[in-house]
Structures are given as structure tokens and as C-alpha cells.
């Protein structure tokens, strides 16, 4: 744990990041967007029901919408923060110097990855007071909020490690960005499409869903939007189990899949950062 | 200190380096001379564990660069030909980052950084952001960085490239200081006379092959088979040209105002005979002299010879 805080790359990256004006403007615009959304929602709700108050169902709706806004921001900001971590060093001609130091490849990748994650965590934490407004109106438990945050962090780690991996493998930042955003779109959009197709294929027009569909379950369980929907609404979860006929917890499937993605991507990044001098020639 | 055996790097069918063999003793300042793309940076990249050789191996302080890359990194200080700096770091923070990258404790770094900045004459820039430093200052800061972990070997890829004459002289003085500290230094440069002044040994590399290796004087003697003679005349240039053209040892006559120069392959006795005949033929000679050859001439002659072969 101590080595994490003494990681030279992490310290240097944090120093550089917090000296850059764009970091502060980024946080400001993020909070501004979140605030406009929340206060706009509250204002519109009160105007529509003409009662001058928000009931708990509307509070749950606000919570759900905020969760999706947070998820969308996480999905869009994380590739931008991580997909240039190594390739930008290469483009700025600082990588070779870094690679000839005594730091291990693990230290360098870990430092790069953690500095991006720390900044993203700061974004999430900075947004917490706005997020917590939903508690004023009831209908949402703190545990639910914590679970959602835990899965947002897991998603961030997975997308972040995909970004770091592509940044290590591909020489150009722009290419790495495109491929990382492509991967993110695959995990959110294409998996949802595959889920719907697999689900449709498993439904008979006469008997409905009778057999378990591994494919529908798989595509559904790795989709961040599907997971968030099931975490927010228990009815959605029941519906998901109903159409897939597999009762293995969706959050567990998500946790396993994205943990593997994180570990594999970081492993590849660590292995590919330096040339393997021992490799058979 | 450095042993290189059969070092080869191949990209497809192109050889960036072909069977390089070299031995460099401890405390030696070795100058690597070669045109762009000759294989200098490839050699340095392999020695710095940044590039895997296709064949062969190199040893630094008895450790193989292919088998003990992690240990090699602690032994060397590498300065690439092109490098960037972190814009938002100050000079002392830049050195501190690299110090911590080599695992040097914070207290030790605190003492080391002012010493290194003093060595490279950057004490007054200690709290300046690195991106506002001039190119020469950045080069010197990068040199200070290579020294932070007190490496036995310095690998400096064209450290003086792109510098103005003053910055070059400053860089040369620092390198002389490092030489006096007993460091083994590998340095490449296009400024050949500068290399001659500081280097104990020189290696000339061309098309991935080491074509000459030894002390500066040894390499210069390799050219002794051909010399350039310059003859200054009072007048009658045409007569002189037709006289010298007849000599079988003379090629490549170039003329100037009241003078001509040519390449001469004959022995010293034949040269004496040539002068005697020219005087007897009433050629109005004011002076008859051999041109001093600097390292650049040597390099041009050697590489030309290789290309022609």
C-alpha cells in the first residue's frame, strides 16, 4: 500500500494533472452539467405536479436519471483520460527516458492507470453532494447509492485498463482513443443489440421462454446499462431472469467479467510496455 | 566495461546493424561517428535495453543486455538524440522524479539535486519550469538526469545536436568533467573535431558496419594511402594543370584562383620527385603543401571507400 503512494509516476502524474488548468475547468463543467440537470429536474417536476414538492417516486426517477448521467460521463471521460497515457509519452518523446529508469513496467502502468482513476474518482466524489440531494426527498437508500458507486468504479477500472492497454500497444494517441471509444461503444451498444437478438431467438411465439439462454445472459450481464437498470429497479432484475432463465446474479457476472477484463488488459499493457529482451530471436 | 559481439538488428531485409564487434574499457570515452541512419542510435538503443537485437549480444560490466535488462538500467545513464520534457515540472522536480524512479531515498535526492544542477550550470534555474528553459539548458538538465543514480556508463546520443556554439562548448566542458570523474562514456556526434578532442577512442560506423575503430591517430593513419596536395602558383595555371594531369598518381584536380589541389597516391619519394620535376618544368610554384586532414575528412574518405567497395 505504501508503495502505491510512493509510486514516482503516480506522484508526477498527479502533480502535472493538478497544475493543468483543464483539470479544474473539467471538474467545474462536470459539476455544472450535473447541477443543471438536477436542479432543472427538480424545477420541472415541481412545475408539472403543481404541488410545490417532489414525491419519493420522482426522487427515485431523479436518482435513476442521475445514475445514467454519471454512467454516461464515466464511459465517455475514462477513455479520454487513459487512452493517451502511454502513447502521449511516446509522442512527447519522454517514454524512452522513462523506460530506461529502474522502474518496473508494473510500476509505470500502475502509476499511469491509478493517476487517471484517482482523477475520475475525484469527479465522482465532487458530484456526491449533488447526487445526495435525492436523499432529501426519500425513496433511495444509501446502500443503493454505494452499490452503484462501486459498479461505476469497476466500470471505470475496466474501461481505463482497456485505454491503457491500447495506449501501450498502439503508437498513436488518436488511434488508441478511437479503438478505446470503439470498445466502450461495443460494451454498451453492441452488447445490448446482441442481448436483444439472443433474447428474441430464445422466445417461442407459442410457449414463450422455456430454455435458459446463455448468450442472452452473457450479453446482458456484461452491458453496463443493463446492470445499472437492474441495480436501480428490482423489477428489471426479475424481468432479466425471466427472459434468460438463468438465475446467477447479474452483478456477479458483471463483476467477474470486468475484473477479468481489467486484469488481462493491465497484464498485456505491462508485458508490451518494454521490448522483451529475452524473447527468442 | 562494454563488450559487443556480433550485434545485429534487422528490419525485414534491411540491416540497421550488421555483426558489430566492439570492446570498450572502463573509463574510456568512446566516440561513435557515422552518418544519419548508419546504426549509431540502433546500437545505443540496444545497449539501453530499448531494442531487442536480431542476433548477437552486448555486456555492460559483465551483464548481458538481453538477459539482465533490469540490472543494466541501473548501470547506465541514457540520453537519447531527441527527447521531450514534462512541461509542468520545475527543474528540481524533474530531477526528483527521475531520482525516485531509481529508488533514491528522498533525503538523498534533496542533497543530490543541487549538486547535479551545479555540475551542469543550472543552479539559477532550479525553480524554473522545464519548458521555459532553452534547448541547451534542457540538454544539460537531461545530462544531469542521466547522472542522478551515479551510473558507471553514460550513453549519450548526439548530446550536442541542435545547440548553438556557446551551448556546445558548455556541453563539451561538462563532458570533460564527467570524463575526469572516471565514467565510461559512449557518445555519438556529427561534430567530429569535437569528438576527437574529448574521445580516447573512435568508432566509425557506416551502413550498420563498424568500418574503423581505434584511437583518433590510428584512424587518421588509415588515410595515409591518399593525401590531398595543394599547390599555390604565381601564374600559368593552365600549364600547371596539364603538367600535373600527366602524373599517374594524381586524381581529382580542383582549381582555384592561382592554386590547385589534387589527391595524390604516390610515396613520399615520388612526391619529392614530383616537386622537383615541376620546378624543372618552370611551373611558377609559390607553395607545395599537404592539406591537414581533420576527422571529417577521415570519415568522408572511409565511408566513401566503403560505398565504392
Low-confidence regions of chain B: none
Tell me the β content of chain A: under 5%
Average pLDDT for all residues of chain B: 84
* Helix proportion range of chain A: over 70%
Radius of gyration of chain B, rounded? 24 Å
Span between termini of chain B: 33 Å
Distance between the termini of chain A: 38 Å
What's the story with the biggest beta sheet of chain B? Answer: 6 strands, mixed
Plain-language structure description:
Chain A: GO terms for molecular function: ABC-type transporter activity. Chain A: This is ABC transporter permease. Chain A: It comes from Viridibacillus arvi. Chain B: Residues 2-232 form the ABC transporter domain. The complex is a heterodimer of chains A (281) and B (309). Chain A is mostly helical. Chain A is built from 14 helices and 2 strands. Chain A has helices spanning 2-5, 8-19, 21-49, 56-82, 87-91, 95-99, 105-131, 133-137, 142-169, 173-201, 214-221, 224-232, 234-244, 250-273; strands spanning 203-204, 208-209. Chain A has a two-stranded antiparallel ribbon. Chain A starts with a helix and ends in an 8-residue tail after the last helix. Chain B has 309 residues and is an alpha/beta fold. Chain B has 2 domains: 2-215, Rossmann fold (3-Layer(aba) Sandwich); 227-292, Alpha-Beta Plaits, CATH 3.30.70.100. In chain B, 38% of the residues lie in helices and 28% in strands. Chain B has helices spanning 40-47, 69-75, 91-101, 106-119, 135-147, 165-180, 192-198, 216-221, 237-245, 268-280, 295-308; strands at residues 2-11, 14-24, 29-34, 55-60, 63-64, 76-79, 153-157, 184-188, 201-206, 209-214, 227-233, 250-256, 259-264, 285-290. In chain B, β12 (250-256) and β13 (259-264) form a beta hairpin. The radius of gyration of chain B is 24 Å and the shape is elongated. At the A-B interface, α2 and α6 of A face α2 and α3 of B.
